[in-house]
Amino acid sequence: MEQNGRYSAISTSTSAMAQSEDFHNNVPLNIKQRKKWRFEYQRGHHLLVAENSSSDNIVFVYKCINCTITVKGTVNSVVIDQCSDVTVVLDTVGGAVGILNSLAIRLRVRMFHKVATVSIERSSTCNIYLSSHSLDAEVITLKSTDVALLIPNTYGDFVRQTVPQKFSTRLTQDGELETFLVIKR
């Protein structure tokens, strides 16, 4: 914020307090409106379910804390925005799953089901559990940290693989951009 030519920073505690007040001033939602399932401002609920969904449905999870949401059936897309410590268990997603501005998210695709794309933006500590049918899923990260894919092995256990977050780009002699992964060992 700029005030009289000076920049002032908003403290983390003030921002967190404003978010907390925002959370308490809103009524929790768990409803389906036409083709959109809405889970908003839920806190501590672990039996939230979107069922009888169809391939044109959208699931929207907003400002939920410490919750588990199960999506039964095929949906077009799932958006998880400004959530913390949330688990979403999915069957099949025809489009994409978007995780935005969130912390400590666990996304699990059930066995024999599929998700094509997972996009993670400005989020931290996201664990994506893929089914054996979703191993070709595309994972896109932007300004996110501590993102991991958990991939099933032949014994049914999950193997954790961290998604790289550091890339370096430079201009080559022919004027092209060259981007590569920075790996620290």
How would you describe what is shown here?
With 185 residues, this protein is mainly β. The protein is built from one helix and 17 strands. The chain has one helix at 12-24, and strands spanning 2-3, 6-7, 29-33, 36-40, 48-53, 58-62, 65-75, 77-81, 84-100, 103-109, 115-121, 124-129, 138-142, 145-152, 158-162, 167-171, 177-181. Strands 3, 4, 5, 6, 7, 8, 9, 10, 11, 12, 13, 14 and 15 form a 13-stranded mixed sheet that branches. Strands 1-2 form a two-stranded antiparallel ribbon. It has a two-stranded antiparallel ribbon with strand order 16-17. The longest helix is centred in the first third of the chain and has 13 residues, at 12-24. It is globular. It starts with a strand and ends with a strand.
Strands, total number: 17
Strand residue content: over 45%
What is Rg?
19 Å
What is the chain-wise order of helices and strands?
EEHEEEEEEEEEEEEEEE
Mind summarizing the main beta sheet? 13 strands, mixed
Shape: globular
